[in-house]
Amino acid sequence: MGSGNVMGGAREARTGGTQHGSTPNRPARLATALGIAGLIPFAAGAALALLSDDAAAARAALLAYGAVILSFLGAVHWGLALASGPTDTRRAMRRFAISVLPSLLGWAALLLPQASGFALATAAFALLLATETLGPLRAGLPGWYLRLRIGLTLGALVALAIGAPTGGGGPA
After folding, report:
1. Using CA atoms, how far apart are residues 156 and 6, in angstroms rounded to an integer?
2. Per mean pLDDT, which range of 1-15, 116-130, 140-154 is the poorest?
3. Which end is more exposed in the chain, N or C (fewer Cβ atoms within 10 Å of the end residue's Cβ)?
4. Beta partners for 113?
């Protein structure tokens, strides 16, 4: 943190930007790189669903990866709830409650016929992003995280749309 100012450093950590010519926030850069790498299975799954001789298996793998990532995104809010101070129990309780929904929706998506599973996973990604950017989960999230989430979620949604079965879809 180039300025040495504690408040400036806190602002930098929240935004992922720079403060007075300092280097960008290293955790934000790492999270961005890892998040982009996390799109590789989405892209591969979508491509295989279009090009593979076994499109159903490719779609199943793509949907399973989406369910795993939904669980991961819910865990972000579980961790934030754990880190909440004792004076913010209402927000922590909300985060705990909401944090399990992505896992449950992802699991349910795996149990449905593929077309319905893809629709549910897509809706879960969109709903979680909406609650993080516009709703009650926005509080406490750094700006860089929200920007990253928008881009990564759009990538996931495009991959799910490309890989989704076009017909009725068989079992997942």
Report:
1. 36
2. 1-15
3. N
4. 171
